[in-house]
Structures are given as C-alpha cells and as structure tokens.
Design a protein that fits this description.
globular; two-stranded antiparallel ribbon; 8-stranded mixed sheet; 224 residues; alpha/beta
Length: 224
C-alpha cells in the first residue's frame, strides 16, 4: 500500500511563518514537521510515498529529495492553490496505483500507527474510504462526522472530528473531472451511500494549523 502526504496548501493561518517556508517544513522539536509523518509511515511498513506540491513546493523537494526514512518519494506538482484536496488526490492517482492508499494531511502530528484497517484489505465489499476520527479539539468543537459501529454517519449522538488521516479506494476519485475539487462533498456522498468506515482514535493527535499550536507542540517535544 502506498501513502500520500498533502503538502500543497498555502498555510494562510500560519502566516507570516509560511511566507518563506512551506508549512510541512516548519521546524518543531528540532526537525521539519513532515519528518515525523515520514518516520511513522516507514515504521508502519510503507515503502513509497507521494507528496503534492504547490506553495514553495520546490523547497520540499530540495529538502527531502527522492528518499527519506527508507521511503521512496515521488512528487505531484500542482498549480498554486488550484486543486484542493480531492483534486490533488485525483491528479496523483497515476502515482498511487490501483490499490487503496493512505492520505495524511501535511500539518498533522500524531502517534497513530498508520497501519491499514482490515476493511480496506478485502477484495469484495470494500468501503470507498476509512476515516480516522478524533475527539473535537478546542478549535473545532462542532465536529464533522459520527460513528455508527464501524460505519461513518453524517449525524449521531456524538460528532467527532476528521483527523486528516484516511485510507481511500481509488474508485472514489477516478471519475472526477480534472481540476479544483474539495474532499468534503465527495466524502459526504459516499457516507450517505453507506460506503465509508471509520474509527475513533484516542491517542495523541495535533492539527498544527497556527503558530500558537506549532509553538505548543515544539515545547512539548523539546521537553521529552
């Protein structure tokens, strides 16, 4: 199974830090943020990763090269800010192959093992996506989706936050026309059709979306 790290975003909430440095390369705990995800992917057994590039993307390519942490790295360049999440994944499909793949947001730090769920390993009756959901952080108290057993639902007694970690069947994106496409509407359509499974992860997870959150994680990691 291959993996993709979403690294094309402008990082508006991180400005001015991202005016001259792409968000995945911002230092935290003495190393680039993306380095933690690469290490975790390697530990989980992945051998190939695709990284999409847009804002200051050549800095990412120059820093990581073609191999890091034992992972072969391939890049999917995009026009600046043009494709959004689903559009970027759709463009990268030729690099991701025919089997389900993992996608991780480039601004996520977590200790999730990133091992593929068994639901994505089946050849028949496979869901279109498997999402990792977490408790709602202070900056997103309304949540996104609910869990009904292993199935993700649009409503329920407890809404959880989508972590930015998910496994996807290429079929979810294959029929999308090229261009700018958001992931949310595509996921909601698949959820309504009962084609999305999920899990509630209770381990460490951080959405590093602002300078304050970056500084807090830096302090936490330096103290270990």
């Amino acid at each position: 199974m291959r993996a993709m790290i979403l690294a094309a975003g402008r990082g508006e909430r991180m400005r001015p830090l991202t005016d001259h440095c792409p968000k995945p390369l911002l230092p935290v705990g003495g190393r680039p943020l993306i380095g933690y995800t690469l290490d975790r992917l390697a530990t989980a057994g992945y051998r190939e990763v695709v990284i999409n590039l847009a804002h200051l993307g050549e800095q990412i390519r120059a820093t990581l090269g073609e191999r890091q942490s034992g992972l072969a790295i391939r890049y999917s360049p995009e026009p600046e800010g043009a494709l959004e999440t689903a559009g970027g994944i759709r463009q990268a499909l030729p690099l991701l192959g025919e089997e389900p793949f993992l996608v991780v947001n480039g601004d996520v730090w977590c200790d999730h093992p990133l091992t593929p769920p068994t639901t994505m390993n089946t050849a028949t009756d496979r869901p279109l996506a498997h999402l990792v959901l977490v408790a709602n952080p202070d900056h997103h108290t309304q949540g996104d989706f609910a869990l009904d057993g292993e199935r993700v639902a649009l409503a329920g007694n407890e809404l959880l936050t989508f972590s930015g970690i998910g496994w996807y069947d290429p079929a979810l994106f294959r029929d999308l026309p090229p261009g700018r496409r958001a992931l949310g509407p595509l996921l909601r359509q698949a959820i309504e059709a009962g084609r999305v499974t999920g899990e509630h992860y209770t381990g460490a997870w951080r959405d590093i979306g602002t300078p304050e959150r970056l500084a807090a994680l830096d302090t936490e990691l330096e103290g270990r």
